[in-house]
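BUG-341 | component: ligand-complex export | severity: low

The export step for thiamine diphosphate jobs runs without errors, but we want the raw record kept on the ticket for reference. Input record follows.
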Amino acid sequence: MKVEEIQTKKTNSLSQELSRLNLLREDAIRLYYYMVLTREFENSILKLYRQGKIIGGAYTGNGNEATSVGSSYALGKTDYLFPMHRDIGAHFVKGQTPYQLYLQHLARGSGFTRGRDGTGHYADTELRIYGNISHLAAMIPLANGVALALKNRKEDSVVLNYIGDGGCNVGDFHEALAMASVMKLPLILIIENNQFAYSTPLHKQYACENLSDRAIGYGIPGVTVDGTDILQVYAETRKAVDRARAGDGPSLIESVTMRMHGHSAHDDASYVPKEMYEIWNKRDPIRQFERKLFDWGILDEDENTKMFEEINHTLTTSAEDAVKEPYPHGSEVTDGVFAKK
Ligand SMILES: Cc1ncc(C[n+]2csc(CCOP(=O)(O)OP(=O)(O)O)c2C)c(N)n1
């Protein structure tokens, strides 16, 4: 095949795939950028944890980046995000900066929770991010509440919420979906099926084939997507967002991926069979999309290296600046707890 033919072929497959999704080349680069930013940020969080600078838990969504970035990319500015502990990518897509997230994880006084929490249990009302509640599945009824308010006010914003393969076995999941479906609430619920709930493998959690089949019981659409393929995740979330915005009610999406690290930094995940990592490593969401962008001629080696360097420079300086910020003063400990007279 001649070079020109290869070029044409690449351009065709690129334009076909992106135009089918109503995405531009810049969107493809942005999707990739957010996934790389997420992974590099979380790697730096693990380093800070090992240096003793982060004293709470340190969770990563390694392997989950296409799920968090691809799904949240389908949201508009006025939409609401209820993220879980594997969804830092969605925070970035929504507009939070590494500096803000370092302040939060380092429990600094100027962080979102003003030093009360060292992980992701905070809201950013300006960006409409409400996450996350530690008690698994307890967020879904709250996401329903926001969705109900939107419906009552006749606003066309939607709510995107995530839950794990473990968390979706908690009663709240079923109660909330039953309510959302009969009330046709603008909710998109993504089950991040990443093979383990802490150390519990899937076969000890449920006996059905697909978790998305649970949607049948609520009379709503349910779909299973390859959670390592960012364009697939985006496409299905987009459909669900459009449906919710049109007033047609909730959707359930099961995104199948793998939790490539332990539950949290303290967990060596020795219970995970090595072969599973080998298999899923070959399906790494970032490497997969990187190859596509190279093949399509959207990104080359030099641009890629530059992107990594720029991201890491931003992360290093943001972390250094955040570390210099003070912890909250002891005298403020009850601020925000008791109403002031
Ligand atoms: C109701 C409840 N039970 C147990 C826990 C402790 N816990 C926190 S995360 C977690 C595992 C969650 O697994 P999964 O929902 O599959 O999400 P993943 O961490 O794998 O992304 C457990 C058991 C909790 N926070 N809430």
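Assignee comment: Attached the raw record above. The beta strands are 80-82, 122-124, 129-131, 159-164, 187-193, 196-197, 200-201, 222-226, 251-256.
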